[in-house]
User: What shape does this take?
Amino acid sequence: MNIANKLAQERRARLAAERLLEQRQTELFHANSRLGDHARLLSNQIVEKRQEVKDVRSVAATLKNENHQVLNDLRNAETKVEVAERRLWDSIETIQDGFAVFDKDSNLVSANFAYLAGLDGIEEVQPGISYARLLELISEEGIVDVGNETRAEWRESMLDRWQSPEIEPRTVKLWNKQFIKLVDRRAEAGDTVSLALNITETIRYESELKEERRRAESANRAKSAFLANMSHEIRTPMNGVVGMADILADTPLSEEQKLYIETIKHSGEALLVIINDILDYSKIEAEKLTIQPEPFDLEQNLFEIATLLLPSAQDKGIDLVVDYARNLPTQFSGDPGRIRQILTNLIGNAVKFTSDGHVLVEVKELPSEQTGLMNIQVSIEDTGIGIPEEMIEFIFGEFNQVEDERNRKFEGTGLGLAITKKLIEMMGGRIWVSSEQGKGSCFNFHLQLPATSDQSPIEGSTFDNLHSAYLFEDDQTFAAVIASQLAPMGIETLVRPSASSAATENAADFYIVGTQFQGRSSEKILQKISQCAPEKPVLLVGSRKSTSPTALGAEHTIQHPFRHQDLDTALACISKALSTPNPTRSEIEVAETEIENLPSQTIPQEAARRMRVLAAEDNKTNQLVFKKMVKNLSIDLKFANNGQEAIELFKSFSPDLIFMDISMPIVDGKEATRTIRKLESQGHLEHTTIIALTAHAMAQDKDEILKAGLDEYSTKPLRKSVITEKLENHCPTGVLDIFSTCSDGATPTA
Ligand code: ADP
Assistant: This one.
């Protein structure tokens, strides 16, 4: 090999080595650069990790702090719980009542000293002891007085109670006469909390109260008896005063004497009202007043009260109007006496506190929620002095009266509304009032009463030929009542400016004339109608302003206040008159002569005897009053001075009617009646009506009296009208009329 080759070979080798070196350098460079990148990455990661470690450290530090805090709090809380628990138990220990907690297996968790009193010293009595074992210990140690039960029975009943889901409280008596009321409640997790309350004081107090109440009740009974007696004692002499005044008023008297007599009568009657009010209130207070339901006619009841109060209203120049809804039945079961009392008081007050305008009594039916009961609303509206707003809530209280100068001129006890409210409430009703001072008041009450028979109130027209009537009445209240009564019968009321315009139009079947129309008197309107429509029947509806309707010569008349039946009767006559042709004058004359020639007595005078009347009455004044009251009547009257004499006279005199006083010496009225009833049944005699005339005003007396066999009941003071009515009602047939002059020329009784 030559040099040049060698050199070329070396150069090639060197070049290859240089390329390799260069390549290695490049690779090294790349490797270095990757290393650098990696080193940078690592360094970054190190920085991040460092930061993370730092963060974690700081969190750890915070947690450590918090942990400290929590631990502290926990320690504090534990201390607090311990303190609270200690305090709670300290408190529970200090109370005299027992307290214990049992777990779900009825083992004692904890109890205060009072709960385990009597068991101290017994080692096993500690937390963990079972309720059953406690019962055993309590009964065996004689801590509890098991009464009539055996110890085993007592434990069994106590355990039964303990195991029931709702544990009823139970009172146990201890050996030392203490009473413990056990009140146990289920708590969470099946625990039972048990309280043992010492109620010895309460029981002692209760028994003292019972004794007090017994004493009070017996005092109350004594008070009631005293009131009954007082009522009798006051009413008997009052009977003499009012009765004698009544008789004296019938004798010839000077005007001055008449005034004195009227004053005596009114004062006596006012005193009786006051006595009755006080009696009633005392009875309500003593819970002695009872509601005595019986079948009665509500409309008749109201009608009688309105008739009774009408003269007072007339004296004052005010209208007293009654509107008893046509669709409302009249027969109900209720206490008629008490309902009468309620109505008398409310209507009486309305009349008393009204000097101008009207008193309107409305009775209507409201929808009832209870089947079988009618919901009746009675409203008594007046246009009187009214009641100041601030007084309204007080007037139903006892002895409360509105005290102002307008009011105090009125008499009264201030008990009426209190009694009325109580009576209504006792009947399950409610009373309320709306009033405006100076304008008037409206008292309303609801009563739920059972209607007694299947009454079908009148609806639709009951008279085929009566469909409309012309109504001449200025007073809007009257006019509205008449229209409301006629509408349900299908009779429309038409109003025309005058009788002649009505006659020209001739659209109605008949005319109704009230008290006054367009300032003209009813008399004038009647005249006008007879001139322009003589063929049309006219119904004259009288009121306090008119003279008696019959006195005006109207053919069909009714007087306010009227009942449905009064209106029906009048309408029936009108309906008949419309369907019957008018009689000729000569027919009328013949009929009149026939009436004149009718014999004056239909009963043959020779055969008749006078009615025999026995009055059993021990009080001589009352005998005299009675005698005077019947002196003009044709009756045979005998007096018995006591019950024994009444029995004797029953046998020898055979009375047709007996008036029987109740309180009499030797044999009282009830006993005498029982004997008479026995005599009647033994001798198969006819039943003799016996009417109690008594000063007893208590409701329970009525029952007892009727139970004794008396037929009717009438309270003193005696009223001539009542006695006469009773005699008239019970005068047997074939006996001389009590109003007739005697055939034998004998003077009537007394
Ligand atoms: P009094 O026997 O005084 O009438 P009440 O208990 O019946 O007793 O009434 C109590 C009071 O209520 C009355 O004194 C009167 O002030 C007021 N009052 C009752 N009814 C009315 C009425 N219709 N108009 C105005 N005031 C009345």
